Structure formats: structure tokens, C-alpha cells
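Please, structure for the following, as C-alpha cells.
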Amino acid sequence: MNSRALAALLSSLISQLLILLLLLFPPSNANTNSFSSPRHSFQESLFLLLRHFLSTSDIAAASLSFLSLSRKRKRAHSQDPDDPGDDSEPGSRLGRLGSVVPRNPDSFKQFFRMNASTFEWLCGLLEPLLDCRDPAGSPLNLPAESRLGIGLFRLATGADYTEISSRFGVSEGDSRFCVKQLCRVLCTNYRFWVGFPSQTELDSVSTRFETLTGLPNCCGIISCTRFHVERTNGADSIAAQIVVDSSSRILSVIAGFRGNKTDLQILKSSSLCKDIEKGVLLNSQKHIAVNEIVVPQYLVGNGDYSLLPWLLVPFVDADRGSVEENFNNAHRLMRVSSLKAMASLRNWGVLSRFIGTEYKFAVACIGACSILHNMLIMREDYSAFCDELDDKVLDNQSRASLEGNLIEDKAFVIRKALATRAKI
């Protein structure tokens, strides 16, 4: 084995070992529908190392080459003698999908909401987990790229299982299995991609917000969005609470709330709120003073939330040219990243229409698309990213409500001090 092949093999082994360690030491979380959790120092180090390895193209190629060996061994007994089955060359995975995958890059993105290189990278990463399970008593004998393609096609387009079955040449039952398996693998094994940042990462998040608006110590934008679910007794909706940074990367997503609840009700019942109030999150000992007022770490939300020391909403009826208006303008600018993230999630076809009748599966789709959203940002693949917003949407989302709900004096003082720092 030459030195390059050996280096590739060792790199792949290291990346897989890091994944295994994260699986053995998962973050604790009491909320089963939550895809966010606090990081401990050991997990922080693993995550940073893992992201370093997985974000490089050399490691991706190494993973493809190494993991294909295990797949060949697994399927050797059923392989067609006339099929060379060579996985080692880039693009071979896509070739085995045959006429299902369009060669036009724009069409490929429409099918899978990612470019071809990201598809191959993701297939190499997920292959051991996609290959390790088949329906009970009915072996699929499908390669990982077909399983991934079926799952992504459903998430990307929202196509029904009849269309998927016809396009990929599999039964509807097998199509359902592949879609659920992809969601299960992502939400179980890669939920750290939407895990709440460590304190070191939060410092970086707040620095970027301060550069953008002049407001220090902001650790994210919180909002709720709702997705439609088709029920046997009529339409319903599921709410998801999402926190994002200035790049629209999702820092926390908690899904599974009934859509008829208000944003404030959802917040109060979420594990995120409980962890913040217990001091588990947003607990930095680094004090930032603005006009002699200590400003803790905080989130920013729209007027549907109450004003709290760790959650700042816009001023109501701010005078033109006042510092309060400057704060509202900065607040409006920060919320753009949240609206882009929610619009990007709706670019996944399965979330832009009625998801289906299974409530748990709908929650899994929201989690899977959130994880894929962050993965694409990490890969700098913006195939599913929404970069344009309607001004009317932004104006409506930034509207402040009456400040009659649970305003704390401390929160009011903090917001008043921060208003003097907002960039004009």
C-alpha cells in the first residue's frame, strides 16, 4: 500500500473512531423531541475534531474508498458476475443510480437539494449505518447510494411513495423503509450537528452578531415555525422552536409541539428554556458592561415573546431617530438569518406541504432536514439555501406586540443600555 493510500485509510479510521466516541458518549437531554443539548468539555473536543476531519475533501474521499471495501464484502455473495462493482473512483456511486439521477447539476440539486460531490461525501459517511439494517425478513439488497437517494428524494421533493417506487424501481414498502431509515440515522447518530454550541463557540457567535449590529453578547435568534401534518380527522400542524446564528446555522431545534400553542407557550415548555433558567446554558462568567449595566448572554426574539433578561424583544412605538429605533433596526437585521433558515427548511419539499399522517415521522423529518441544513452550510453547499426574503415577511415578523406580559425591570434596563450600542 502506497503512502497516500495508507494516509487516506488512517484518516478514515480516525473520523469513524470520532463518530463512534460521540455515539458512546451522547449528550444527555430529557426532551425526546429535542435536537439540542449542552456540551461538556469532552464532547466539545470530540465535536471540533470531528468537524475538522469531516469537512475536508481528502477525508471524504478516504471514507468513500475505505467504506466501500466493507460494502463489497457484505454484498459479494449477491453481486452480479458481470458487474465490476468498482466503488473506488469518484462518481461511481452516482453511476450506479443509473437513469434516476439527472446529469444536469441544476436538476440534481432539485432532486436531492445538494450537489453531486456532497451527495457522494454524505453517502460515504452514512454507508455503514444505512447498510446495517433491512426490513425484518425482507433483505433489500440495495446499495447505500440507492438508500440515500430514495430518502433524500422524498425529503427534497416531497414526492409520494408511488412516484418514488416507480422512479427508483423498488416497492412502496421499501421506499418507506429507506426514508424512515435515513431520518432515523440522521436524528440518532448526527444530532450533534444541531447541538447547542459550547461556550467557546458561543463567544464566536456573539462576536459575529456584535460586528453586524454593535450589540454585544447576543448568542442567537429564537423563533417558532409550523409545518402542516395531514391527519385522519383533518389538517393539523407541528411547531418547531429554532435558534440560529448570524449565518443561519441552526444552534438548537426542538420539534413536536402542537401548532396551536403560542410561541411563548412553546418556549416555556421547552428544555431550552428550562436549561437557561437553571443556568445550564447561557451561563458565561464573562461580564460585559454597557453604561455600567451588566449584560448577560441573551437571545433575540420577536414580539410574540416576553421581555426577559436572557430574551430581548423589540421596543414598542419607538420614536423616530431614537436609540430605541436603532435597537429595533439592529434587531430586525439580526432576525434576517432566522427567517432565511426557516425559509431554507421549507425548501425541502417534505416540509413545504402536508408531511404525512404519522406524527413521529413528521417530527423526524423536521429533525433530519435541520441536520442536513447545517451539514450543507458546513460543506458550503447552498443548494437548499434561501438567500432572498420578501420585505413584507420581514416587516411582519419584526412587529412588536404590547409589552404587558411579564416584563422584568432587569430586562428592561438591559435592553435600554444595549440600545445605545446599536449601529445606526
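The chain has 16 helices and seven strands. Residues 323-346 form the longest helix (24 residues).
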